[in-house]
Amino acid sequence: MNEYSHLALAAVLAIPASAAALLAAVPGYRVSARLNMLAAFLTFLAAASLLAGRPVPGQYLIVDDLNNVFIVLTTFVGFTTSVFSASYIAHELESGRLTPTYLRFYHAMYQILMFSMNLALIANNIGLMWVAIEFATLTTVLMVGIYRTHEALEAAWKYFILGSVGIGLALFGTILVYLAAQPVVGEGLDAMVWTVLIEHAAKFDAALLNIAFVFLLLGYGTKAGLVPLHAWLPDAHAEGPTPISAVLSGLLLNVALYALLRFKVLLAANADAVTPGPLMVILGLASLIFAGFMLYRRRDIKRFFAYSSIEHIGIVAFAFGIGGPIANFAGLLHMTMHSLTKSAIFFAVGHIAQAKGTQRIAEIRGLSVSHPALSVAFGLCVVAIAGLPPFGIFTSEFMLVTSTFARQPLLAVLLGLGLLVAFGALIWRLQGVLFGEPTGPSEQPTATLVPIYIHIAIVLVAGVWLPWPFVRWFEQVARLLG
Amino acid sequence: MRGLIFDIAHLLAGSLVLVSFIQLYQDRLTALLNVFALHAVVLALSVAWQAFIQGAPHLFVTAAIALVFKGVIVPLALHRIIVRLGIHREIETVGGIGLTMLAGMGLVALSMVVMLKATAGADPLAREDLAFALSVVLIGLLMMVTRRNAVSQVVGFMSLENGLILAATGARGMPFVVEISVAFSVLIAFIVIGIFLFRIRERFDTVDVSALDRFRGDRG
Question: What residues contact residue A390 under an 8 Å CB cut-off, 6+ apart?
Answer without folding.
Answer: A460, A463, A464
